[in-house]
């Protein structure tokens, strides 16, 4: 009899009535039923029902109070809209036919609770402190749920540090904080004001450096759904999805090792489609503009529910938005349209812009494909401009260095990331040679093998030579380098092509032998790079400017031989403007690709190009320069069509950004959308598609510290060390030795 009853129930969803079939067609046409969500939200359903989720909802689910998507509650819809109840129309059917267009309320309004006033805690975490591999951040709004969370945390068998924020409720919160500290020694616990829901507490910790150095961070909160019959079940499903009782270690390792993974959420928590916009479009747009990310309204995809694992790159991008308490709305029971709602959607755009995905639990798989081969050698252009010299004093004012231009960089459009200012190394002076040692240590950790240092030599006259000459006197400072002769005239407009000549590059008789003799002491230094293991390397920036490149190169090589250096591996930069004296094929051992030279074409321009103003942001009327799409340029750099235009022996190049408005003001050239997310995409593509065929499988980065051109890998106040993290992630340099070898008691350690 029981078996027959079950068969009848199964048959019920296969043989719908005529009215139910029309209901089904309306659901499918609307696109408002989320199959992934339904299956994830109600995993205990029979597999037959899960195969036909819409039919199950129509036959059984709606009457049971199940949700067709996370934001539609049948009970709440009927309660707030008695006309629907009186008409006897199924609530979701009414919504897809009428209510959606009318923007009717679809879920329970949260209870507005008056809580005691509380100021923001002043928190800061020591840089470089010892940490576990993982962090778990928990926000407690409902204190009665803490015992449930504490039990789950005790069962975790991964090494983690615990961070707990609590919405302040007075003495009750103070007592709970002490209980948590006693139960989990070493956990960081702090009360927070009732603002920004679970998002502001998380962002506060993020901005304070709490999550620096972790492989991944787990975030969850005391999600209650009192309006749902299955509220407790749903919360447990979301947390169980990312902290499963069995197999957590394997799934977490798969998540961390998957380069395409940015977020890990429970099944049903990856929302896609424009129906999830609500009233959050403009707030999302304004947030994304803070870091030059354009909004595509038709491509919404994000991790919902604020319960997830997240990787460092997306966390760093969120931090770069520089959100503060005053940005967040006061809590007044809003169901949509707050900054917290917008941030939820912003996270999806940050993930996509970085070339990553939101993965659900059932989508996690161990890494199958091998990672792209690492480059055999990685170089970065290095600018020694950062110290005063008499010439710059005369031309630009007493005490001038590159920093003066950097701090005065103007903003030319809404969200323009200027000025970009240094962070960890500060406004350094390269006469203090210790700075070069710090730079080299950072670069080495990021996978960079040597700096290609600009060498300013004007027929025997040197300028900006102090940093490298002082380095020669400090053999204990480990700074791997080689030289690039920057053989262009210095001009007042900074482009080397036009404007008043400040210091002219000449090529007098015998200049080659003098250059060889002057550079020989550097080439003999033990720190001077020999990428092929034998020959010291030397690069010429503008070979076509030499009156007779072939003869000059021959004399230069001979000059080094006579100086006792022997054979030199000689390269040249592939410049974007053809010089007066073409270089014969095979004259140089290699060429260096130097983005953006030669990469920007008509369709890439967003402003100042053939199609006029296509910028997704309001422009400063004074701007007369050029703006192009960084992501489009990156795609061209990876295309076979472009690669075929390069000499065969070319080192593939990438750039973290380009923006010379610091030097050229309103006439500057800007790569719009250059940030660590898009740099991550370009670098990953270069390693997969360019480096295997690159000269000696090498990679070149433009640049390490071109601050006035915003081609910078060094840490900035805007992005921290995210560019270096991107390099480290792909180039496989060792992570900082701050992780614990074994999980401590309760998975925590002291801060």
What does this entry look like structurally?
- The protein has 751 residues and is of the alpha/beta class.
- 34% of the residues lie in helices and 15% in strands.
- The chain has three domains: 1-102, no CATH class; 134-360, Spore Coat Polysaccharide Biosynthesis Protein SpsA, Chain A; 377-731, TIM Barrel.
- The strands form six sheets. It has an eight-stranded parallel beta barrel. A seven-stranded mixed β-sheet has the order 3-2-1-4-8-5-9, with helices on both faces.
- α21 packs across α22 (549-562).
- The longest helix is centred in the middle third of the chain and has 15 residues, at 339-353.
- The protein is elongated, with a radius of gyration of 30 Å.
- It comes from Cereibacter sphaeroides (strain ATCC 17023 / DSM 158 / JCM 6121 / CCUG 31486 / LMG 2827 / NBRC 12203 / NCIMB 8253 / ATH 2.4.1.) (Rhodobacter sphaeroides).
Characteristics:
7-stranded mixed sheet; elongated; single chain; Lipopolysaccharide biosynthesis protein-like protein; plasmid; 27 helices; 3 domains; Spore Coat Polysaccharide Biosynthesis Protein SpsA, Chain A; TIM Barrel; disordered C terminus; 8-stranded parallel β-barrel; 751 residues; alpha/beta
């Amino acid at each position: 009899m029981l078996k027959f009853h079950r068969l009848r129930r199964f048959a019920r969803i296969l043989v719908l009535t005529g009215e139910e079939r029309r209901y089904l067609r309306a659901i499918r046409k609307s696109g408002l039923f989320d199959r992934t969500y339904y299956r994830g939200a109600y995993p205990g359903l029979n597999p037959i029902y899960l195969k036909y989720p819409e039919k199950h909802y129509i036959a059984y689910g709606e009457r049971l109070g199940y949700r067709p998507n996370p934001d539609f509650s049948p009970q709440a819809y009927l309660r707030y809209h008695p006309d629907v109840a009186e008409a006897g129309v199924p609530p979701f059917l009414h919504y897809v036919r009428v209510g959606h267009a009318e923007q009717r309320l679809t879920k329970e309004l949260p209870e507005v609770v008056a809580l005691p006033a509380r100021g923001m805690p002043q928190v800061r975490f020591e840089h470089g402190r010892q940490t576990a591999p993982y962090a778990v951040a928990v926000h407690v709004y409902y204190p009665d749920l803490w015992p449930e969370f504490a039990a789950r945390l005790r069962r975790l068998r991964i090494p983690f540090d615990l961070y707990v924020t609590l919405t302040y409720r007075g003495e009750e919160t103070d007592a709970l904080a002490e209980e948590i500290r006693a139960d989990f020694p070493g956990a960081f616990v702090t009360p927070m004001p009732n603002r920004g829901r679970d998002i502001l507490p998380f962002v506060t910790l993020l901005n304070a450096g709490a999550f620096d150095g972790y492989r991944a961070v787990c975030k969850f909160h005391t999600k209650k759904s009192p309006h749902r019959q299955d509220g407790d079940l749903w919360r447990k499903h979301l947390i169980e999805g990312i902290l499963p009782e069995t197999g957590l270690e394997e799934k977490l390792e798969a998540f961390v090792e998957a380069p395409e993974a940015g977020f890990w959420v429970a099944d049903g928590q990856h929302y896609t489609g424009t129906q999830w916009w609500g009233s959050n479009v403009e707030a999302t747009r304004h947030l994304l503009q803070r870091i030059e990310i354009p909004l595509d309204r038709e491509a919404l995809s994000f991790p919902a529910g604020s319960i997830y694992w997240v990787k460092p790159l997306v966390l760093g991008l969120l931090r770069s938005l520089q959100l503060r308490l005053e940005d967040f709305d006061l809590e007044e029971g809003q169901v949509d349209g707050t900054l917290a709602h917008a941030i939820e959607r912003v996270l999806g755009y940050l993930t996509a812009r970085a070339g990553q995905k939101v993965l659900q639990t059932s989508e996690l798989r161990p890494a199958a494909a091998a990672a792209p081969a690492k480059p055999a050698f990685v170089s970065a252009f290095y600018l020694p401009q950062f110290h005063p010299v008499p010439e710059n004093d005369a031309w630009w004012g007493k005490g001038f260095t590159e920093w003066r231009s950097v701090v005065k960089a103007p903003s030319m459009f809404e969200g323009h990331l200027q000025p970009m200012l240094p962070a960890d190394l500060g406004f350094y002076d390269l006469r203090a040679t210790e700075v070069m040692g710090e730079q080299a240590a950072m670069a080495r950790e990021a996978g960079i093998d040597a700096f290609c240092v600009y060498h300013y030599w004007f027929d025997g006259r040197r300028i900006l030579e102090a940093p490298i000459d002082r380095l020669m006197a400090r053999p204990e400072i480990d700074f791997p380098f080689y030289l690039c002769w920057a053989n262009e005239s210095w001009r007042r407009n900074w482009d080397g092509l036009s404007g008043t000549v400040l210091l002219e590059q000449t090529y007098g008789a015998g200049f080659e032998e003098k250059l060889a003799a002057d550079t020989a002491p550097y080439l003999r230094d033990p720190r001077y790079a020999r990428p092929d293991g034998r020959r010291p390397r030397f690069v010429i920036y503008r070979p076509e400017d030499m009156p007779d490149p072939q003869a000059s190169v021959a004399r230069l090589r001979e000059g080094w031989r006579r100086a006792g250096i022997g054979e030199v591996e000689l390269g040249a930069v592939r410049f974007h403007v053809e010089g007066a004296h073409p270089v014969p094929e095979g004259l140089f051992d290699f060429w260096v690709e130097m983005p953006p030279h030669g990469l920007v074409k008509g369709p890439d321009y967003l402003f100042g190009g053939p199609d006029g103003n296509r910028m997704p942001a309001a422009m400063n009327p004074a701007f007369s320069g050029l703006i192009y799409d960084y992501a489009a340029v990156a795609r061209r750099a990876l295309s076979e069509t472009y690669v075929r235009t390069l000499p065969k022996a070319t080192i593939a190049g990438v750039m973290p950004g380009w923006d010379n408005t610091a030097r050229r003001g309103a006439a500057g050239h800007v790569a719009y959308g250059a940030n660590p997310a898009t740099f991550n995409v370009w670098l990953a593509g270069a390693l997969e598609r360019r480096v295997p065929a690159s000269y000696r499988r090498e990679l070149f980065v433009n640049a390490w510290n071109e601050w006035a051109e915003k081609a910078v890998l060094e840490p900035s106040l805007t992005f921290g060390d995210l560019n270096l993290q991107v390099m480290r992630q792909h180039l496989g340099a060792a992570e900082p030795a701050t992780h614990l070898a074994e999980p401590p008691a309760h998975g925590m350690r002291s801060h």
